[in-house]
Specification:
Length: 196
């Protein structure tokens, strides 16, 4: 399967390198990108009810409604589908829960990308996640606090781990140890996807 035909979802806890690895693949292979966190932070800049609530949830380390996230995905997927050539797609940080898995499955089926879908799980432990968060001194996002990290980890254990197990059972999961260097993790991802 060519890189340009793949639809990849990156899952993993905070600090696992989802955004970093996504950017590396985009630079090398030209994928388009849907980052749920980026879309929500952009949505939070609007001064309407939803924008203000999303901004508050981000600051508190809470997760915005799947309804809001799905609407943002749909808008981006429609733009990508209307390109003259499909460049492949990376979905960063979603699906976060079983309900979002069904939404993404439905969306990929709607846009004709279901057979090209693979899920990459960047696996790190809480200790490494915390270490990486603290190492971001001076370049942290507003929602990168230890309290927010604990809330995101609690959600990850309760909601996202079942998603990961579901994808494992369906044969769609590629699990990568995300503890090594960025370069080593990148090589492992590329090798697992047979991109080179």
């Amino acid at each position: 399967m060519k890189a340009s035909n793949l639809v990849l979802a990156f899952l993993g806890p905070s600090g696992s390198g989802k955004g970093t690895q996504s950017k590396r693949l985009i630079e090398k292979f030209g994928f388009t990108y849907i980052g749920s966190g980026d879309l929500l932070r952009q949505r939070a800049k609007k001064s309407d009810f939803t924008g203000k609530k999303v901004k508050k949830y981000i600051a508190e380390g809470k997760l915005a409604s799947s309804l809001i996230v799905a609407r943002l995905w749909e808008e981006e997927m429609e733009k990508i589908k209307n390109l003259s050539q499909f460049p492949g797609l990376i979905i960063d940080g979603s699906p976060r829960c079983p309900f979002e898995t069904r939404l993404i499955d439905s969306g990929l089926d709607w846009y004709g990308w279901k057979d090209q879908y693979r899920v990459i799980y960047l696996n790190i432990g809480y200790g490494e996640s915390k270490k990486r968060l603290l190492a971001k001194e001076g370049r942290k996002r507003n929602d990168d606090t230890l309290a927010a990290l604990d809330r995101r980890w609690s959600w990850f254990r309760k909601q996202t781990l079942p998603v990961i197990e579901d994808y494992r059972r369906r044969g769609l999961l590629i699990e990568i140890d995300a503890h090594p260097s960025i370069e080593d993790v990148y090589r492992a991802v590329v090798q697992a996807l047979k991109l080179e």
